[in-house]
Amino acid sequence: MNLRIIRLILLAVIVANNTHSIFAQDVHFSQASSSPLTLNPALAGANNVTQAIVNYRTQWRSVASPYSTIAASFDMRLNEASRQKKGIFAMGLNLYNDQSGDLNLATTNANLNMAYHLLIDRQSTIGGGIYIGFGQRSISTSSGQWANQFNGDFYDANLQSGEAAFADKINYFDVGTGFVYTYRGSENYMTSNDQKEYNIGFAVYHLNRPDYSFMAAKNEQLYMRFSGFANAIIGINNSRNSLMPAIYFQRQKTATEFLFGTYWRYRIQEASRVTGFNKGSYLSLGAFYRTNDALVAKAMFEMFDYSVGFAYDINVSSLTSVSKARGGFELFLKYGLAKKNGATRSRI
Question: Which of 90, 165, 212, 336 is the most exposed place for a label (fewest CB within 10 A)?
Fold first, then answer.
């Protein structure tokens, strides 16, 4: 038995006994706040007038065939120019494609998000959102190697697999909802650096429990995913420094994920007080921990309305003996335009 097969078997055994069990799960990003519509549909329009983000993640390259995810989202406020408004209407579109394993298991989702944020005062909003989506899962059975194809000495692709017939592609309808509270105090370009911003939210995905089984005779439904988070930007008075602490919680059937930590953010360039055109530039470094899984190192650079971020998962779970601590790499690119009290500014 070659080394690759040994690794695959060990991976299956360890994962099956870990909190991240082997039933179908949603994609997740270590830079969770930079994939907002996979975190909470109510985040459409919550912090930006217009926002566009592209995400990429790859993991387990050192263990088996790599798992790769690419996602893109766009959201905008629909009534930003309206005066005397009591709330903010917003819409967003979220797309992602996930490829995993030797059987090329692929999941593709397209979700339309709609949200409304009630203006509590000049600093706070509370909002709700829903998404309506379409999903597709596919698998390449021709890439598989089955037990019945082992002739006693070696694998023989000419032998019948003996596996029950099943579909190689399924489609499903999906729906979910979420709620978000936001608070923004002061401006992030003030010399005093007394900025305080908070976001708190909770969401439920797959409320309709869509069928995701490739086998027609087997009724398997996608489990609801519960998502909660709290993050902040806290300026350190009279300095160029800020902290950006965050905690994220996800649960889907028996799989539970806690991700928590903080960025340290340094203001490289002061923002303009006069024109509002120059919104400053920032460098951020972060350290996060995903319980029973990985340490996550992060870096982010912001200039005007644009941001780029990197993250790397350092595996510290029981899989370390196989993974050699190599987990996943992430990249995001973002454009985000925000407005407050008539002055535009960038926000991550």
Answer: 165
pLDDT confidence band for 288 (50 / 70 / 90): very high
Other CB atoms within 10 A of residue 105 CB: 18
Between vectors from CA 86 to CA 85 and to CA 92, what angle results, nearest 5°? Answer: 85
What are the residues facing 113 on neighbouring strands?
92, 131
Tens digit of pLDDT for each residue in 142-192?
555 555 656 666 665 565 555 555 567 889 999 999 999 999 886 545 566
Burial letters 109-124, b for 16+ CB under 10 A, else e? bebbbbbbbeeeeeee
Question: Could you give the CA distance from residue 54 to residue 191 in angstroms, rounded to a whole number?
Answer: 32
Phi, psi of 37 (to 5 degrees): -80, -10
The first and second tokens of residue 111, run together, are 């979700």
Q: Assign residue 310 the CATH number of its domain.
A: 2.40.160.40
Question: Domain containing 237: what range?
Answer: 3-345
- Of 97, 92, 142, 134, the residue nearest 117 (C-alpha): 92
Count the domains in the chain: 1
pLDDT score, position 13: 42
Is the model more confident about 277 or about 244? 244
Instruction: With a cut of 90, say whether residue 342 has pLDDT above it.
Output: no
- 73: which strand partners? 53, 94
Q: What is the pLDDT of residue 129?
A: 97
Burial readout 155-192 (b: 16 or more C-beta within 10 A, e: otherwise) = eeeeeeeeeeeeeeebebebbbbbbbbbbbeebbbeee
What are 205-261's pLDDT values in tens digits? 999 999 877 666 567 788 999 999 999 999 988 888 999 999 999 999 888 999 999
**Cβ(138)–Cβ(168) below 8 Å:** yes
As a 3-state breakdown, the chain gives helix, strand, coil percent values, each rounded to 5, of: 10, 50, 40
How far are the Cα atoms of 125, 188, 254, 277 from residue 269, in angstroms, in the given order? 29, 12, 46, 13
CA dihedral sign, ordered 227, 197, 277, 45: positive
CB 101 within 8 A of CB 67: yes
Q: What is the pTM of this model?
A: 0.81
